[in-house]
Amino acid sequence: MQLNAAHSDEGSGRIPVRGDRIELLQPRTGIRVRGTVFHVDQVQILVKWDDGRSESLRPGSAYRIVEEA
Fold first, then answer.
1. What angle is formed at CA 55 by the lines to CA 52 and CA 57, rounded to 5 degrees?
2. Please, what's the b/e burial string for 48-69 (b: 16 or more CB within 10 A of its CB; e: otherwise)?
3. Contact criterion met (CB below 8 Å) for 20 and 65
4. In whole angstroms, how far apart are CA 30 and each of 13, 19, 25, 27, 40?
5. Given this model, what pLDDT does residue 13 score?
6. pLDDT score for 44
7. Which of 11, 31, 41, 55 is deepest in the core (most CB within 10 A)?
């Protein structure tokens, strides 16, 4: 069972690690939300969004890891 294929960007299949920047692929009110991964385990990915909110995502959620320059 491959849990992370649904949220990979360009097929990388990588689960984010603490400190990674991610972006939700399903926009909220027309805006794609970005945030920083705070905690990762086998059950959840805790993200602190740039708008001040926090959210627990499941490994099958629709997001992509953002490579910041």
1. 145
2. eeeeeeeeebebebebbbeeee
3. yes
4. 26, 25, 11, 5, 27
5. 65
6. 94
7. 55
* Residue 6 near residue 63 (C-beta atoms within 8 A): no
H-helix or E-strand spanning residue 38: strand 34-40
Enter the tokens of residue 68: 């910041």
* Cα angle, residue 53 at apex, residues 47 and 59 outer, rounded to 5°: 25
Confidence at residue 7, expressed as pLDDT on a 0 to 100 scale: 44
Q: Which two tokens stand for residue 65?
A: 């890891």
What SS3 state is found at 41? Answer: coil
Q: Token digits for 12?
A: 């990388």
pLDDT in tens, 6-56: 444 444 567 899 999 999 998 878 888 999 999 999 899 999 999 999 999
